[in-house]
Amino acid sequence: MASVKQAEETMLRAPGFRWWHGIIIGLLLSYVPGSLLVAGVLLLPLVALRFVDPNADSQRIMIVLFYVGAVMVHPLHEAWAGNGDWDTCIAQITNPITLALDWLAVGAAWLVAEASAIGGRLWNAEVARRERKSIEKRIAYLQEEWMSSDDSPAA
Amino acid sequence: MADTQADNSQELLIAERYLISLDHKQPDLAGCATYTAQDMTAAGNSYLALAPVAPSARLSEIMFFRHESVIPIQAHEYSAGALWILCPHPPGPSLAEGLGLWTESQLIDGVIRPFASLFQSLEAARLTCRNIRPDNLFVGQGLHKIVLGPLGVGAPAENQAVVFEPLSSAVCRPSARGDGTIDDDIFSLGVMILALAIGKLPLEGLSDTDILRRRFEVGTPAAYMEGQNVPVGLRSLLTAMLADDPVNRPSPRDLVTIAPSKLFTVRSILPARVPLMIGGNAVYTPQALAWYAGRHPTEFSGLLQRKVVSNWLHSELELSVMASLIEQASASFLPAGGGKAVDPATMVLTHAISVLDPAAPMFWGGIWFWPEALPRMVAQAVVQPATPDEERTIRNILNFMAGNPDAFVSAHLPRRQGQQITALSVVARRAGAKGLELVRRLPYDTNSFLPCLSKRCWEERISLPDGLSQWLDRHAGIEDLPEDVLGRSGFLDDQMRSFLEACCGRQGIVPLSLSQKAGLPVWLADLTLLAAVQRKFDAKPLSFLAKRALPLLETELRQWRSKTSRARRRVRLGKAAEDGNLGVFLAVVNDPTGLRLDHRQAQEAEAEISNLMRVMDEAPERRAANDREARNSGEFFSLLTGIAVAMASVWLEFCR
Q1: For the domain bounded by B95-256, which CATH number is listed?
Q2: CA distances from B333 to A81, B312, B411, B476 (A)
Q3: Which chain B residues are closer than 8 Å to A147 by Cβ?
Q4: Could you say which residues of chain B have pLDDT below 70?
Q5: Least confident piece of the model among A3-17, A75-89, A101-115
Q6: B571 CB near a chain A CB, below 8 Å?
Q7: What are the helix (H) ranges across B174-280?
Q8: CB under 8 Å to B610, separation ≥6 — which residues?
Q9: What is the pLDDT of residue B370?
Q10: B37, B22 Cβ separation under 8 angstroms
Q11: Number of structural domains, chain A?
Q12: CATH class entry, domain B2-87
C-alpha cells in the first residue's frame, strides 16, 4: 500500500497528470484494489528507472513499458481470474519469478537497445572504413595517372 | 650515291636504263662534268651524261627545244635527287682544239645560216643560247658545219670569256650576266665568225680589264678587227654584228637571208672631239664614260656635281637630250629626302649611268649586274664567294631590290632593267618571306633545277626535295649531327630549309607559317617541314631521321599529363619511327585536340582528388551523426522487440 501511494505521489509530480487520472485511480482502487496493487508493484521498475536515469525520455519509458507489460499480462490475468481476490493478488506479487522477470524486463529492454546500437555502430564503422579505403585507392590512382611529373624508366 | 658506292666499278644506273660509268670522265661539255653512259635497253647506244651544277632556270623549256645546230638533250633523269642530263656525243672535236681558217662561203653556209635559223627558233621560244664559244662548238670531221653544245645545262653566259660577250654583259662578273637577249648571241656569233675567219681569237693574250678598256676606247669592231686580215666580204657584216649598241646588230632574219658581200649599215658613233678625263683615262663616248663611272664613282660624282659631264655631253658630243637628263639626275644630289633606305648618291650614280648608256647593265652597290641574275649571283656567292664580302653585298642588294621595287621604278631605269626588277619583286612577294630568309629562298624560287646550296650536301647536287630528305636520312647519324647541334639548330641548315620551303611553295603548300615557326623548337619545325615534304613528294620512309628525333619527341611527350596516354604514345612513336612516316610520327605528338582533352581530363582529375580529400576530412563529423543514428535505431529495434514480446506474452496467456 505504501509503495502504491509512493508511486501515486511520484506520478502526481509527473507532468501531464490531470485530476481525472486521480478519479480513475480512485475508482479502480475501490473496485479492483488487488489488481491495481499487482499492476502498481509490477510497474515499480519503471519508477526506479525514472529515478536512476533522469534522462530517460518518454520513448525510453514506452519501450520499457512494453517489456514490463509483457511480464504483467500473466499476473494481471491471474488476478482477474481470481476476481481480484486479495490472496491471489498477494501471491502474485510475492511470486519471485514474476518479480525477477519484471526487473529483468527493464534490463532486457536496455540490453536490446544498447546491443543493437553497438551493432549498428560497428556496422557503420565497417562501412566507413571500406569507403575510406576505396577513396584512398582512387586518389592514389589519380595522382599516379595525372600528377606524376615524369617517369622515364627505360624510355 | 649509295648505289655507286656499293659496287667498286663506279657505275651509276639511273632510271633503270642509263648506265653511267663514273670512271670514264670525258672532257667537260658546256661547262658540266661529263661521263659516258650506255643505254641498257638498246645495246650500243652510247650517250654523254652531264652533271650540271647550275642548270638554267628555263631548262624545262629548253629540254624540248630541238634544232639541227644544237646537240639535243635526249633525256633528263634524277638519281638520288641529283639531275643528270643525257645527250648524244658531239659530232667531232670542239673548235677549242683548232679553229682552222674558214672561207667566206664556208662561214655563210656552215655557220651563219644555220645559226641564224637557230636564233629565229630561239627567239620564237623566247630563249637565248649565251654559250657560243669555241669549246662549246663542235665541228664534224671533214665538214664545215658547226654544232652548238646542249643549251641550258649551265647558268647563262657564265662560262663565256669576256671577248665573246657584248659590253652590256662583259662588264658584269660571270654570274651577273643574266639571260640576255638574242642580240647578245648575235654578238657572240660575230666574234666566233671573226675568229674562224682570221684563224685566231681577237685580242688574244690580254687581261679581261685590258680587253674591256680597249673595247671602250675604240669600240668593239675596231678593237677586234684592227690589223687583222678580215675577208672584205665579211667586214660590213662583222662590224654590224660586233656593234656595241644592240640596236645596230643585225636581226636573225637579216642573217638568214645573208649572201656573200651583203652590206650592213651601222649608224656610226661619233667620238667626242675633246675627251673627258676621269681617273686618268681619256673618255670619248658616253658608253665608256658609264663604264669608267663604275670604276671611279667618287670622281664621277664630283664631275656630275660640277656639271662637267652635262657640259661635255652638250658641247663635245652634241647630245643635248642626254645632257639635260644628266643634269636632272645630278640635281637630286641636293638633300631632297628621296627613299629612306636608298643611298641617294648610289641611286644617282645608277641613274646617271643608265642615262649615259641605256644598254648597260645596272650599276648599284659597286657592282654591275642584270637584276634577273641576282638569284644566280646569290647562289654563286654562297657556293664560291669571290671576295669575303661578296655574299653580304649581293644579299643586301637583292633584299633591298625585292622589297622596294618602287624605289627603282621612280629612278627611271631602262625598260629591261625595270621589267626584271618588277619580275623579281613579284617572285619575292609570292615567296612570302622576308629579309635574309627571302634572299635564301629566291634562288630556289626562281630556278627549280637549282641544287640545294647547303655546304653539307652541295657536292651531291641534290635538286629534288625527296632526294634531300633521303640524303638527310642517310646522314642523320650522331657523327653527322651531334646531339647539341641537333638540339640547337635542328636537322636542317638554313639553305636546306629554304630549299625545301621553296619546293613546297611550288606545290602550293606552306608547311609552317612564320608565327608557327616562331613558337616551335628548331628541330620540330624541321621535322614538320620534312614531314610535309615526305607527304607531298611521296618520299620513301625516313626511319633514321625519325629514330634520331625519337628522344627529342619523347621529351615533348611531357606535355601529356596522363601517364597511360604518355606510355601509349611512346609506343606509337616507336612504331612510327620504325615505319619512317614522319607525318604519323609527328601527329602522335602534335595533337592539339588530344592534348586539350588530356588537359581537361587532368583538370577533372584534380577536381575529383580535392573533392575526395574533402570527403575524407568530413569523416569524424559523419561518424558522430552515424552514432546518433545507431542509438536511435537501437532504441527503435528495442521498441519493436518489446512490442513483439508483449504480443507474444498476450498470445501465450490467452490463446493457448
Answers
A1: 1.10.510.10
A2: 147, 19, 13, 56
A3: 561
A4: 1-9, 332-345, 411, 513-516
A5: A3-17
A6: no
A7: 182-198, 208-218, 220-225, 232-241, 252-256
A8: none
A9: 92
A10: no
A11: 1
A12: alpha beta
